[in-house]
Amino acid sequence: MSPFCLCVSAEWRVVVMGSREWGRLDLIRCMTSQVVQGKTKTTYVLLSAPWNVLCYYAEEISLRVPLQVVTTPISNWSEKILEKLHIPNIMAQDVPNLPPDYYTCQFHTNKLERFLGHENKDTFFKTTQRHQILYEILARTPYGSLKRGEVGIGRLVSEHVLTAAFPLHEGQFEIFLSLSLMSVGFYTGWLLPAAVVGFIIFLFGIWLMVTDVAAEELCSSGNAFVMCPLCNICSYWNLSSICYTYKAGLLFDNGGTVFFSIFMSLWAVTFLEYWKRTSSILSHRWDCSEFEEIEERPRPEFTALAPMTVRNPVTGAEEPYFPETQRLSRTITGNMVIILMIAIVLIFLIAIILYRTILSIIIYRSQNAGRIASLTGSMLNLLVILLLSRLYTYLAQILTRWEMHRTQTKYENAFILKVFIFQFVNFYSSPVYIAFFKGRFVGYPGNYNTLLGIRNEDCGASGCLIELAQELLVIMVGKQVISNIQEFVLPKLKTWWHRRKLKPAPSQELIDEPDGQPDLSPWEANYQLLVCEGLFDEYLEMVLQFGFITIFVAACPLAPFFALINNWVEVRLDAQKFVCEYRRPVVERAQDIGIWLTILKFISYLAVISNAFLISFTSDFLPRLYYRYTTGSMRGYINFTLSVAPANFTQSYMTCRYRGLRDDKGQPTQDYYHLLAIRLSFVIIFEHVVLLIGRIIDWMVPDIPEEVEIKIKREHYMAKEALAENQHWTAVYFSLFSHILSLMSFSSH
Question: Name one GO cellular component term (predicted).
Fold first, then answer.
């Protein structure tokens, strides 16, 4: 049995618990050890509950316990088809030592004999259920004035009366580590087909580099296409000088990316639909499918800081209260801070744009001036993103606490929404600028548009898509590498520092030992671990990654591949971190992933629109298709995409070219308007077709598998039979009693 540990680390503090509550529950408290460090004494108290208390609270908090082992495995039609065709299922998750599944129902003490394993009181309740019961007791126990909300272990820890309250790890960490390593997760498993298809599209781009007609025409053009200067002090240059850059652009800008965009849009919809199915399977297996917390208790911080109390209409008890008008005003103020932080992000974005432009002017004599400016700008942008991300997450915590949300659920939803809105702008503003705005407002030779006196930034001659791919790879892969290094190094450094602070004063017995190291008890060893801060950072990282591989996938088909590699590494780092570096958290039940699913749906819909505009207005796919349709060949395509600068721009008889579909006066040509109509039509058709197919997939794939629905109905039936058995015997006794009365009546006659 794994006990629950309380730690008291203070010199003159006494913890006063409500004696009536503790006495009624008959909790066992065991002083196990005391560690002295200077003037500070740490006392460890191990708590465990007897059988009658476990039964009492298991019934009160509606814990579910097993009735019968489920013998029918859950399978689906795709698994059966692959098995018949003898094709390996790459999406299968092989979890070793998977515990058996049970039919369960809510626990009732008077029906104890009906439940599976009731003979063994030590193993009937799982360890996590025992922790949940003990934490429920600790969370309800008053230690002072109820009117002031002085209730629960959470507030005692937040007020530093207790330094910690946590359940202990159990078993050998190698076992749990191996289980965590071998289960790579649902999302990571679904990344595999996306990564394979994306890698094939990338190989197709390599083949195009060698065979593309337009690329051969550009590389062999020599001095045929003299391009206009890129800045006021720059000189003329030949288009053939960017031969390798243009070919590199074909890796990311080709017809295969259109197919891959459609594939990833449908992949995102299908992934979410099958995630809902998997979520229903897991919630039923973990007895959370019907979990609804009718009255969630107030947060400890809320009870401590609320200015008044009111009577709860449900429980009738006095509870802390914060006026809704004050919360609304604080929420509006918090939203203004979010807008201010978003404005700061945009200011930094403009600063990086100016940096790239100025640097490219300074080093214009270099052959790769634009590429150097773009790459260094991306790296600088990544640094700014990471710094602002840290700053705003800290600020969002302060704002959300200041808004005084009553329950933990409302607090978490408000915090998640704030952080996601900011991080969405923080991480995606630069890719959005490159994809949809860069090069759109440049003007033309002789009539260039400027920003702060500097010519607006233009895409390179090979297009904006290769720059977008570079930006995505730098931000996504760079963030992943830095995050993995932080997850590996920071927990170890924090653990070392925490253990150094908790190092006990040396005693003579310890000095006499050969190794000079004390033998720590499990509660001391667990106390030296870091506090588990939840899964928010893990969810946020996966959601942002999901956005990178769906919203901008038309520009970088390798994004799912790099995401798969990252997750394969990170799941191992997380396993090490949660099992070996963090304290064991108290179990919490939830039906699903909450507001994160809504955010993922929003990203999947946005991805369809984003990819439609990327293909239409950023990629060369539609101009190439239009030119091939009108001429029947790709010969002359490079000349088709270049316009001649107006005569008033050049100072000599030399003419120069620039990218665009304009006449010699700088006005859009008829081909420009034809292409504009085709692009807008493609956006509408692409969006409607993909969303329609997505809705069909949504309609075809039920949220709850048929096997789970049958199990739920079977479980309800078994629970009804188990709990209604007394009614059956009452009916039998009533029938027997009626029969006796009829016999007595017959004998009297």
Answer: plasma membrane
